[in-house]
Amino acid sequence: MEASVKNKIFHTQDLCLRTNLRCAKKQRKNGGYHGIKKSESKRTCTGDGPASYGYGMEGGGAFQTTDHESTYGNSHPGSSHLNIFVEEAVKGVDENGGKAARYYATDMCDGMSQGHDGINYSLAHRDAITNLVEAQANATTFDGGVFIASCDKAMPAMLMSIGRLKEMSAIVVTGGVMEATVVKPEYVENDPGCKINELLTLEQIGKFSAQYERGEIPEEQLRYYKHNACPSCGACSFMGTASTMQVMAEALGLMLPGTALMPATAPELKKAAYDAGKQLMKLVEMGIAAKDIVTMESLENAIMVHAAISGSTNAVMHIPAIAHEFGFEIDADTFDRMHRGAHYLLNIRPAGDWPAQYFYYAGGVPRVMEEIKSMLHLDVMTVTGKTLGENLEELKKNGFYEHCDAILKEKSALIGKEIKRTDIIADFDHAIGTEGSIAILRGNLAPEGAVIKHTACPKEMFHARLNAKPYDSEEEAIDAILKGKVVPGDAVFIRYEGPRGSGMPEMFYTGEAICSDPKLAASVALITDGRFSGASRGPVVGHVSPEAAAGGPIAFVEEGDLIELDVENRRLAIVGVKGEEKTGEEIAQILEERKKNWKGFTSKYKSGLLKLYAQHATSAMKGAYMD
């Protein structure tokens, strides 16, 4: 039994790769490394069976396994190009001593499921992908994996999957971001909320759709925007959930430095995929597992980067869910604590001006981490086999930033505007803000918390007294807004849209209907136990917990209640009834009486995934994962 050890590698785009190492795997134990004998490794398989021949391996001996996964599928532009990177990663393994096996767990597109009940499956399918990857990886054991994804739920699902498979080596490749479209001169709007109106990105469609519904632009103009908002493959070109979670993967140390959120069309991205497969082989040989990389310190680094980029509020769910799979407990209060005093640097849509592709041109994740490194744990391990601090020093010497500067110069010429790197990623000492980007609100309306992205909220709404207008579905609310039934000073409530209510869909179009109306944009709040797209902007408060379906106070809000929104003091509360202010004790008694008359909630989903999700989902403040 002296045959060479052979390793299988799992790629998850949902892609699996198998590696064929010519040396025994080393494993970290008790602070050191030791070789694993074939008889000691639970992942060791004999090479005599038919499966070994199916993977092109010679009979005899034993082989160890590694796993690669991906979310490739041709149903939407976020994932339809991922197989390109799968094949590059396969080469990276096959040409460096391994043999790759591909697995797939295709994701859905949140954008394509907007406007109908399909959006209810969005968050639940994050957990469905995680479960599938877990099954694929453990049904045929692996020693390591390449995980390839792009989009809103695919990215956190892959990171959660790595948590479940944390004993093996893992590396992430992301599918990058789609490019923006240069708008025809006749369709360039003068929107004071965005300084770069010449560039069209997908999140603007909600604004244009609401303008069309109000008769402000013709159908032809709306059609132009729709037909040109997605000019390439990749994640949507703004700092939404997909882009945020790509950044989080690198911030956690699971990606090669500088490879998150590249333009999907960049030739560098194909090379990054190949290099990831090659590097995975080194990780397996070195015995560096995912659990050695994702630690409480690296999770805290990710939260600090989230603050610096004004990341999506959905990360407040996804990071705790990822941490949970790695055996750590992080809640929304951790985000609030770490965002206070954090330097917010990124001028990328929806909170800023530039499309997300410009993030890479300005230096990407390394540039952000370089600027905030005084606030980071620099001694954490990464997939390079080096610490974060060592990676940052190397990038300053290997030409990475000079390469990015050269591309930015080319893009300046393309749109006829001089673009400085600091127009996109500010220096630490010249930060856009110094209080992070999100806040966790509490009060008698949200005893367990609610989240707001204050960097995308008008300052006029940081302190507001509002009149409640509750609706039990998004359809009712958006109809009322578009028909002028919502007026300045209102607080629109959409409830029964939490994890146990309807799967926690996004309230994107309702928020855009408010923000695109000059009369409402800085005078009306949207409050929900559902969630928002990472593209959402304005005074929108989500994840209100406990949710209405669980009997949370949001279920008992009545029209005419006085609502206090106080971002700086982190407060969200009912402070009066029918226009008359009440004491806290009086409000508590009123809510208790309303609860007695509450008829409860019965889900309309009687079978399938959404029934299971409603039965097992935790609170949004804990991560909304199935427990």
Distance between the termini: 44 Å
Strand numbers in spatial order across the main sheet: 12-13-17-16-15-14-18-19-20
Rg over CA atoms: 25 Å
The major β-sheet equals: 9 strands, mixed
Name the overall outline. globular
Backbone structural class? alpha/beta
- The percentage helix is 25-40%
Could you walk me through the main structural features you see in this protein, from its secondary elements to its overall organization?
By secondary structure, the protein is of the alpha/beta class. It has 21 helices and 20 strands. The strands form four sheets. It has a nine-stranded mixed β-sheet. The longest helix has 20 residues, at 267-286. The chain is globular. The two termini are 44 Å apart.
Brief digest:
The protein contains 21 helices and 20 strands.
Architecture blueprint of SSEs:
Elements (H helix, E strand, L loop, with lengths): L5 E8 L12 E4 L2 E4 L9 E2 L3 H5 L7 E4 L3 E2 L11 H13 L4 E6 L16 H19 L4 E6 L4 H11 L4 E6 L6 E2 L16 E2 L4 H9 L5 H10 L12 H11 L15 H20 L3 H4 L2 H14 L5 H11 L6 H8 L17 H5 L2 H8 L16 H8 L4 H16 L5 H4 L13 E6 L2 E8 L9 E9 L2 H9 L7 E5 L13 H8 L9 E4 L11 E6 L16 E5 L4 E7 L2 E2 L2 H13 L11 H9 L11
Parallel strand pairs: 1-5, 1-7, 1-8, 6-8, 8-9, 14-15, 15-16, 16-17
Antiparallel strand pairs: 2-3, 4-5, 10-11, 12-13, 13-17, 14-18, 18-19, 19-20
